[in-house]
Hints:
By secondary structure, chain A is an alpha/beta fold. In chain A, 40% of the residues lie in helices and 15% in strands. The first copy, chain A, has eleven helices and twelve strands. The first copy, chain A, has helices at 10-17, 21-28, 36-49, 55-62, 78-93, 111-119, 168-181, 197-212, 229-242, 254-266, 300-319; strands spanning 67-73, 97-103, 125-128, 150-153, 163-166, 187-191, 222-224, 248-251, 276-278, 295-297, 329-332, 335-337. In chain A, helix 10 (254-266) links the parallel strand 8 (248-251) and strand 9 (276-278). In chain A, helix 1 packs across helix 2 (21-28). The first copy, chain A, is elongated. At the A-B interface, helix 4, helix 5, strand 2, helix 6 and helix 9 of A face helix 4, helix 5, strand 2, helix 6 and helix 9 of B. Strand 2 (97-103) of chain A pairs antiparallel with strand 2 of chain B.
Amino acid sequence: xxxxxxxxxxxxxxxxxxxxTMTVSRVINQHPDVSKDTRSRVLxxxxxxxxxxxxxxxxxxxxxxYTIGVITAGLKYFGPSQTLNGITVQAETLGYGVLLKEIAQxxxxxxxxxxxxxxxxxxxxxxxxxxxxxxNRSFLDQGISFPVPIIFLTMEPREGIPVVSxxxxxxxxxxxRHLIDQGCTRIGHIAGPVEWWEAQQRIRGWETAxxxxxxxxxxxQCVSGNWSSASGEMAFQRRLDQFPEMDAVFAGNDQMALSxxxxxxxxxxxxxxxxxxxxxxxxxxxxxxxxxxxxxRTDQKQVGELAVQELVRMIQSVWSPEIPYExxxxxxxxxxxxxxxxxxxxx
Amino acid sequence: xxxxxxxxxxxxxxxxxxxxTMTVSRVINQHPDVSKDTRSRVLxxxxxxxxxxxxxxxxxxxxxxYTIGVITAGLKYFGPSQTLNGITVQAETLGYGVLLKEIAQxxxxxxxxxxxxxxxxxxxxxxxxxxxxxxNRSFLDQGISFPVPIIFLTMEPREGIPVVSxxxxxxxxxxxRHLIDQGCTRIGHIAGPVEWWEAQQRIRGWETAxxxxxxxxxxxQCVSGNWSSASGEMAFQRRLDQFPEMDAVFAGNDQMALSxxxxxxxxxxxxxxxxxxxxxxxxxxxxxxxxxxxxxRTDQKQVGELAVQELVRMIQSVWSPEIPYExxxxxxxxxxxxxxxxxxxxx
DNA sequence: GTGAAAGCGCTAACAC
DNA sequence: GTGTTAGCGCTTTCAC
Lengths: 347, 347
C-alpha cells in the first residue's frame, strides 16, 4: 500500500499564496484582521493544496490539545460501553477528541503511570470512568493534586470532587417499594459483589425500603453474586435454601435476574405468582425474558454525557478564570419499569 | 480545584543536572553513549523533579505519535464494544495509544473530515471498525489513497486491502447443518438487515447448507429484522404465517432468537420439540434463556486484537521498509455451541 | 492589515 | 561521551 506521503504545512501554503505564515494562521483561526482579498486568496490555496493544520503543533504551543483522556475498565460489559458511548458523543459535540485507556482490572492499577501517559499527550482533562470498587478511590485520601481537571464516575459523592453517578440507592428503594406494593412481604436480594459501591447502595436501598415498611431484612435474605448470570443462579439457589418463604427477589442486575427466572421455571415456581422479580439496569433484552422482566432503567449513556459536559466546564474555567467552577456531585435518578415478572395478580 | 500547574521540561532537568538537553534526551531514550556517572545523575534529577517527557513534542519532531485512530459506530451494541475492548488491550500491549472516534450512523458519514481529524493529531494508523453496510465501502472504489496505514474490520475481503473479520458464512453453514443433523427439514431464517454484509453472509450460509442437503430454501422462509429483539418478534410472527410448516429457525443473532423463544412459548410451541432454534453471536446471557440457546460463538474481541497486530505490522513496515507487509484478509472461524434450544429428542 | 522573530518541548545531525 | 545547531508546524508578541 502506498500512502499520501507528505502533509502540506502552513509554510507551503504561505509561500504559494505569497503571504507570511502569520497571515495564513490568521485566516485558519478566523482572525478578523485580514483583508477580504487576502483571506479569499489564502482560502483558495488552502482548498487547492488540501492543507489541514496540525493539531499537534497547535497543542504544543497553546499547551492545550482539545482532547480528553478517558480511563475505563470492563468495556466488554454493558454499563461501561454505554457510558463510553455517551462520552464520545458529547466530546464530539463539544469539539474534543477522546484518548482512551482501558485498564485490565477494576481494583488493581497504578494511577501515576496512567496519568503520565495521558498527560504526556497533553489531555486537557480526564474522565475517570472506573466505578468505585473496594479501596480503588483511596488515592483521593492522600490529598493528591491532579495535573488537569478530572471528573469521577460512579462513586460516593465527596466534598470538592466532581462526580457523576446514577442514584443506585433510590433506584433500589423504588424497586423494593414496588414489590411491597404488589403485596410481597418476604423479599430477598441477590446483590452484586459487596466491594462495589453500586452493589452497596442497592443493598442499602433494599434494606431501607423493607425497614420503612416494617418488613424483615435479615442477612439470610441477601447474598452476593458477581453480576454474571452464572453467579446469579448459584446465589438464588442458596437463597431458596436459607430463605424458603421468599415471595419476591430484587436482583442486583438484569443478568442475575435472568438466570433466576430460569431456575424458577425449572423448579416449577411461577413468576410472578409464586415469586415476583425485579432486576436493575434495563438490558435491552429484558422485555423478552420469560416472563418479561420488571427492572430499573439507568441511563449509563447520560452519565457519560454529563461527565463530559462538566469536565469541559472545568477546563474552560481553567483557561478563563472569570468563569468559575464549583465541583458538584450529579446524581441521575433511575426509573422503575414494570413488566410481567412483578405484576401481582395474587391479592 | 487546584492543579499541579507547570510541567517540568527537559531544559529544566538539563540545567538542574548540569548537562545539555541532548544528554537528558539520550538518557530518557536509553541511548548507550552516556557515561554511567552522567546517566545516574540525570536519572536522579528526573526522578526528583518528576519529569515526564512530552509525547506531543516527540510526535511532532519524529512525525509519529505511537497512537492509532479508531473509527467505530454503535458502541452501545454488544459487538462493537467487544471489538473495541480487543483493540485497547492489544494497543496497550504494543505500546500504542488509542484515539477514538464514534460516528452516529453506520452508513452516513463523510470520510475526509474523519481522516483529517485523526491525521491532524498524527495517528500512525487507523482501524476502521465500522462494519460494511450498504454502500459504505464505496470510497474504496474511487481508488483513494490513504494518509496512513489502515485496516478494515468486518467486510468482504478485497485484493490489496487488509481486512479482519469473522467468517459469518461458515458460521451460518454450521448452524444450519446442525439443525439438519437434528432432523429438521423446514428451516426458516430470521436475518439481519440485508444491507449488512454480515447479514448477507449469514443468509448465504443458510441457503447453501439447505441446498447442499437437498432441502428447500425459498424466499418465504427468510425475512429480515434489524438485529433487535423487537424486530425479531415481528419477523418471526410473519414467518409463522407464511411458512407454517417450519420446524426450525436459524436466527441472525441471539437478540432476535430471544424474542422468538418468547413468542413460541406464548403460542405453546415447544422448543426444541416443535421448533428448534439456533442463534448467532453468543451473548453472555444466552445459556440462561428458556430454553438455553444454541448459538454460534464469534470472538469479536479477537477481531480487534488481530486488527491492531496487523496494523502495527503495517506501521512498522512504513518505518522500516526492510520489513515487508502484504495486505491480507484474516478470517476468524466461529464455533457452534449446542444447548437445549436445538437438541432433538424427536427422532 | 501584515510580517519578523522567537519559541512550545523535544531530537537528528553533526561537531568536538 | 557530550554539546551545538537547527528545526518539527504552529502561534504569540511586537513591530511596522
